[in-house]
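note to self: dont lose this again. the chain is below, predicted strucutre after it. 81 aa total, dont forget to put it in the shared folder this time
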Amino acid sequence: MTAENFDHILNTPAERTPFQVFTAEFNSGRRFEVDHPRALVARDGVAVFLAPGGYPIWFDHESVNQIIGAPAGTGRRKKRR
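---
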């Protein structure tokens, strides 16, 4: 995924009104839910998500497999690459 595409794909669901939880999946298969619109910042192909408790998850455009437009574990998958 290109850095520009990565920024767009992460920022679009984060700016949706009303906000809806979405899931990021890494190439390794690990997933996390973006549960708040201001808990994620993406710029120039790099992002940080502040998980509950302030735990930061840093990742970049090369480590993401897909963004799923639904909470983790729901079975709904809206691919965004």
